[in-house]
């Protein structure tokens, strides 16, 4: 009954668009966008019916909303995004699109989606109180889509919260689309790993240092006392958050830290970011909690994560890069850049162990998938982490509202 | 083949084999001979075996042949060749027998040809082969054959031969020749022949010594010779006999001697064969024609047969019992006393079968025959029973009797008495297996009686109650009428004098409040028929259901009859009064209102226990301010609508002055009904009632029913009712933590929509009622103050905006959540921690937690609904989910 899994390492809702016909769009969610895209494009099994039309393939992920703290949250968001005409998360007055017709089943008919409409609805959703404080992040892979977004945001009076990062992740070379995997040269591969969905960390690698720190502290029972309330923190007698900054080692009650982050805001429950009480580094709440959830519920994931880390030590770059990354506000971007050199090793462990000579992304991915099965070291696929509900299709979406 | 085999097995050769010189097929010629003769093709023409001179037209059982042979035993000469033959069989080295064998083979072949049946032929060959098979089984034979040269070699080759013989019939001839001579005896029965049996036979014969063989050989020889005139009759007789139902052992055995007698052959041989042979003669012969117990057991029958049958039996036994040499030895013994009935049919009919043991054999012969012809047994009993036996539908009563094992002495009855007896029988239909299973002889009878008794049972459990209770004259007549109306299908449509449906269970629960009202009215009316006179159709419906309700009440098992009923009555009385008050506001014929009013007090006067009601103040005369004061005294939120104030006050009064309600018949019915009224007014009380099943809802329902009519157009303000509503729901929900929270969910809508005085009224009503006491007390205590505290400003206000209320509530929830102390168990985070961890919050659980004390702690005494909690979550950007799906399923993992 209670949550049995930690915060997923990666879960995103994506907006898929046909490269052939920009008018055809699709909204879905997945913990592994690369794999999902392949499925949509027919390169892997399990694609959606809506995207199975050959004439519309290949598809591209134009933008994603990521950072969902649970798969349930992601699915709820996805449904709301797909059904802005129905969803209760959008207040009637805010509703941009209304159902004008009714389906045979009595359900209101969904208005046709387009990129602009989806973007606008996305904007609304991100502003809606239901989702506004979620630790989400919006990332665009497609320049024109991003342009549309900015245009829309300018038009709308309200804006999404400032702390919601909107990231542009275009390919440096090709501004149009950065999500496809057609490259076959190592250079291409390298290029692609620096951006796009392929570059997204879909595992817990970003949390590795934090996890390690936390693990150490807990193992040696060095909790000490809460940095905020100064009460003694008994080992295994509560939920304690640990500062991810290496060396800080400040342990606090979860609630204490939240209060600290909220800085006295009584009405808000969930903070978004704050400063570590001891080392004062800017921390995102979700990062802190992610590690905590891993510690609490994600023993398996931690094992996998650390196992991989150990195996990676041979590569050398991994841990260093990990250490250098900080859980700062924009750590996503920073990490991305830092990862460039060590990308081969760090990002998406599924690249690893395959020789660099393996050029094609697709190949490497597929072989990686097979590798995942063969080697138990491959840790970080959220799928392997036990996430049962992964991708959701538009068609068979549950009404989660 | 391997030498190892030789070694292993050679150590333990059974003695039998030893006598056989380790040859599994002593009757066979040396393997070399066999192999030489192998390529023999089907022997036809000159090579064909000559047709026997005394061919049997049909199957000739080995026993028959054996018998013949034994019959033909004449002195030593025959024996000698027999012995020779026996020697032949078992003496491998002798080559003489080959000739005789050949002769026999010819004969045998001829015999083989007789049936011209593959089955026979093959089995013979098979038997030949199988005999080898049997030897094959004993693999060591083979190696032994190899080891010890000729003998073993013969065996080995013998083994090989039969294999080939399988494939080639011709080859078998070679092997079969030797064996067939024995098998001719068994020929007709050769279906089950296998090698082992042959070995057994041979073994048996070996163990028995040559004596046994001698007669067989004699027989064979005699057959071979085919010149025995003595045999003619026998052979034919045997042949004939084989076509018949096999005779009983005794008879058969007797036949043998009989037939043998004529040729005046010494019986010694025969006698040697079967010790059990009886010399009864013709009687036995005739016995075979009758149906006797022995015939039911073929095994038995075969055993004591004469020489011929005996042989058959021997073969059978030998054939069927693999590896059981002893069986052959004991085969001749009769089966002994008839075994217990083993089949169900036997069981069923055992009683009717005269016990064989009781009958001496000589009289047994005529007995079976006589059974068919004698009227010693009553014609209608045994006479038709025996033929009735195979029928599935046989009287079970009789079927139970066979269990006893002995048929009762049948008495011949006169036809009339017999018919009567038949009528008395309890026929139970079933298959024999069903019927035969009855263990107890009286089981079926008891069952039958029970069934009859149950049919007689009055299925109206209330009929006796009706008779015993209802002291009031009002219901007496009705009660009697009801008592007569049984709860059967017919009674479902039963109607009373007024034409109303009598059957209470037909009441539509949807109308329960109306029903309750009607009940009250009807309670006041001694004559139900007077009610329909009211023109108000609203009342008409009431009346009808009233009457039915009244009957319901009567029929309800009144655990406490007296006081409860009176209380109910009083309650009912009072509500019409209320009704009357309400009706003041609506354009109703005054007579309607007055009429209930008038008999009300009169009725109340008749009810002793209701005498405590003081005079109700006429609220109508109060000024509005006074009304407000009164209402405040009852600790209700101020109500703007004067009518509603009146209603409320009346109800308060009623509640104050009402006797313990206890178990209200109507309440019981109503309480079990989760159906909500169509009118929204009923929804909130219904919701609360849903959540508090124990709570007598008669009153609240009535009240709720009353109020909507009075205030149909009341503006739906959340404030007024929201608070008191929550008050009620708090209490309700508090005690129904096990109630599915979905119910909490659903009524919420209606709650929000309809501002009900009802809840407030019911609140005030309840304090006086002792049951359920818990609720009342809590309601009493908690309702007044928080209302004031929370919104002192609103006391004089008519409404508070829903939004404000909501925000207020939300703040409380937030407070409740945040004021939790941090959990001590990392595996069980408290609510705040869960939220902080971004766990999807299960709304049901949170609601429950909030309602069970958390909100109280922070000073909110209402109850929250899950929908409100959901709104709160969404406002706080907390991911939340329902545990229950819209379809009714529920999530178990998130």
Task: Characterize the structure shown.
- The complex is a heterodimer of chains A (401) and B (894).
- With 401 residues, chain A is an alpha+beta fold.
- Chain A has 2 domains: 12-203, no CATH class; 204-347, 2-Layer Sandwich (Herpes Virus-1), CATH 3.30.40.
- Chain A has 12 helices and 9 strands.
- In chain A, the strands form 3 sheets. A 5-stranded mixed sheet of chain A has the order 2-1-3-4-5. Chain A has a two-stranded antiparallel ribbon with strand order 6-7.
- The radius of gyration of chain A is 21 Å and the shape is globular.
- Mean pLDDT of chain A is 72; it is low at 174-192 and 314-387.
- The N terminus of chain B is likely disordered.
- Chain B is mainly alpha-helical and 894 residues long.
- The longest helix of chain B has 24 residues, at 562-585.
- Chain B has 49 helices and 2 strands.
- The radius of gyration of chain B is 51 Å and the shape is elongated.
- A two-stranded parallel sheet of chain B has the order 1-2.
- Chain B is 61% helix and 0% strand.
- Among the domains of chain B are: 15-40 and 59-330, no CATH class; 375-441, no CATH class; 653-657 and 674-800, no CATH class; 802-881, no CATH class.
- Classes of the chains: A alpha+beta (401), B mainly alpha (894).
- Chain A binds chain B through residues 1-4, 7, 69-70, 72-73, 76, 89, 129-135, 236-239, 253-256, 258, 266-271, 285-286, 289, 292-293, 296, 399-400, and chain B through 811, 814, 817-818, 820, 822-829, 832-840, 874-879, 881, 886, 892-894.
- Chain A: Forms a heterodimer with SLX4.
- Chain A: Residues 172-194 are annotated as: Disordered.
- Chain A: GO terms for molecular function: 5'-flap endonuclease activity; crossover junction DNA endonuclease activity.
- Chain A: Residues 9-91 form the GIY-YIG domain.
- Chain A: It is found in: Nucleus.
- Chain B: GO terms for molecular function: 5'-flap endonuclease activity; DNA binding.
